[in-house]
Amino acid sequence: MPTDPHPPGSVTADGGASAGGPAEGGNSIGRLELVEFPHPALARRSRALVQIDDDLCDAIGEMFEIMYASGGVGLAANQVALPYRLFIVNVEGRPDAGDELVFINPVLSRPRGVAVQEEGCLSLPGVRMDVRRPERVLVEAWSLDGEPIRMDLDGLLARVVQHEFDHLEGRLFTDRLPDAAALEARRLLESFREVFAGRQARGELPPTAALLDRLDRLEAARCGPVAGSAAR
Ligand SMILES: [Zn+2]
Question: Distance between CA atoms of 133 and 115, rounded to whole angstroms?
Fold first, then answer.
């Protein structure tokens, strides 16, 4: 049973305090970068966006730049440590081709068929595995312009949209593997954990508590309340 996606608030021209300025805190998003497993943003189920401001629009533009620079065809907000219910897709993976799609507060429904295809993830560099997913799916969402999106998807676009939607649910493709492959994935994820902990120990990454504080602050600035924010 499809549920209407939540419409975000109308786009405002209000950039808030010192958008892009050096001041941290407040609603400022600041510069984005890809984060890798096990950054806590990747395990977090994102809440519906209720406010879209200039700072977030800038961030979405930056997400496309990061996606193209990394050779990706889709990118979810939590892959750049933003706790927002949105992802972007361009199946051509190039700024000069294909359509740049932004899905805000997406809802998936009507899964049909089964397809197995190899997937990778910018949050798990170097890991590629066969993943079984529905072949077709209906996505409903909102565009950055506040227009409703309703697309019945198949092929690569259906694959990418489902992969990115999983990110918003705090899931990675490694959560969808059959037993033998899941065992192999668990071993790989453990090595990612060691690398991440090492970078934190050397001060190259903030401690987890600081990462969580930032997520909480950004979430409070633009997301709806927990109750009633479920998109399905
Ligand atoms: Zn991914």
Answer: 6
